[in-house]
Amino acid sequence: MFSRSSIRNLIRTYRTSAIPKGQRPSPKDSPSDPKELARRHAQVKAFNRRSPKLHPLYMNIPTALKYLRAAEVGQPALKTTISLMINVIPEKGSIPLQGSIFYPNSFKKNRVIAFTNNEEEINNLKINNDVLVGGVELINQILNDEINLDQYTQAYANESISKNLNQIARKLGPRGLMPTTKRGTVGSDILKLINENNSALPFKQKGRHVSVPIGRCDFSDEQLLTNLKYASKAIFDSQPKGTKKPNTIGIAYLSSTLGPSIVVDIKN
Q1: Running DSSP on this structure, what letter comes out for residue 149?
Q2: What is the pTM of this model?
Q3: I need a surface site. Which of 90, 115, 116, 210 has the fewest CB within 10 A?
């Protein structure tokens, strides 16, 4: 039998009031000393420049793929996306990384909006069910919110109609659908533009990361490795040439829809 003193020690007290927790530090409390900020920035850069093999979450790529596939067992193949995320440490005034990846092993079906007044181009593109094509009427439909833009992944325009797109720039721009000459989505031959870029996947640096899908779990290791090479090369090549303040491209991670993030080496 337990003594009263021992029973008293086993009793767990009940409180009706919450135990105060430590408050999260406010952004206002972050260091403002330039020297301290520079020191921390240098630490982050040094950490991301280290060999990924020194990271506790490091695995070689084939092993990482095995773990990610295991995490997706029982899931539909179309929902098992494997993604690459790379840390990017920007310098003050540096240009964010952005570009397009042309995957040899395509896994995402693109739906395209094509703006043109050329009747021949309209008739040729109407055959493709994944292309919404039109001229001024299509622009007015978008302006009046008659088209669900979220279901489209790419947009192209003929030079003859590109100036008319300014009135719907606020609707296309936030979705990455605004055709521009700089991005190579405006030209005189819209059919050629679509055929050359239909397998392209655009990417853009957000904050301190670039994240892109590279395939699905039902892809073979060879297909995923090939796509991974194309993705990493496109991201490294997107570094603005001749810039005095290049971004530091750091640690890379592979992850899946339900799986963990695993550090991998994409530089070698």
Answers
A1: G
A2: 0.66
A3: 90
